Amino acid sequence: MTDITIEVADREKTIVRTSVIGIVTNVLLVGFKAFVGLMSNSIAIILDAVNNLSDALSSVVTIIGAKLGAKQPDKKHPLGYGRIEYLSSMIVAALVLYAGITSLVESIKKIIHPEAADYGAVTLVILFVAIAAKLILGLYVKKQGKRVNSGALVASGSDAMFDAILSASVLASAVVYLIWGVSLEAYVGVVIAGFIIKAGVEMMIETLNDIIGKREDAETTKDLKDIICEEEAVLGAYDVTLFNYGPNKNYGSVHVELPDTLTVDQVDRITRRIQNNVFRRTGVILTGIGVYSFNTSDDEAARMRNRIQETVLSYDWALQMHGFYADTEQKTLRFDVVMSFDVDRKEALEALHGEISGLYPDYEILIVPDVDMAD
Question: Considering the entire predicted model, what is its pTM?
Fold first, then answer.
């Protein structure tokens, strides 16, 4: 069994186990903080308890999302249910945002109509224990989330670490009140609410980016190209495109440049080896591998390639040229150009076509514009 297969099999169990630990810890903290908050008449501690309750609910949603997302593909959803996890992350973000807004409203009410708090030694001890518990929980959950590539777990871990900081601010306000008699309760509550709202908005934006589809980082694209180019006959790999259907569920396509002397049988063997190597080492399933033919024995075609590439790359918005092939007998040539998003593609194509036609007026020219997919 490969490392990728083991990771996929272990992922759901890790998410569920980590989330259960989070639920149990947060429920205990909710009980302690709610009791202390009510006994001491502390709005800040009560809001801290509400925040922990939202964390517990978030963990429940994360478990449900992981379970549903792990369902096997079927006729209705042949690429699986992995994207359900993004919906669960969105629900988690909404819960956090709701908790933040509610906390802000209650804190403002306390500023307008202040009430004195009554702290004791037990209150301070419980707050200190809660801070330590949330810090340890946050570090653990975030680490597990990164290990299994779970956005919901990473977000929950980060939120727990923020909670520890916010609980520390509550403890600090209690100490200030006991020493100087100055009540910062409601104002600390506003600060807590602000952090919660910020976390909810950031989680929502990140999840929306996953749902809409975002740019792959340069390192991922480079790794894929390096693996593909390890195949001896491959002269270059281009147009890497990944389609995400949930965490660790990536499909992709690529163009490879091969010598024009290969047979279809040889090309078939090469592309199958590429697919197997890429999946074994990255977990990405290449559903399509296109082929660019490379002139290997036509010196005139080689000279044309160099001249046209120099012309194309003289434009700032032309990032790369590839897939070049010239048939000097049939008088045809074709190539792809990766264009920046800053240029009008239609105008850019017209400019290129006009200039290349001026260089080779007898040739039928096909220029394919490509999207700049990687950083």
Answer: 0.64
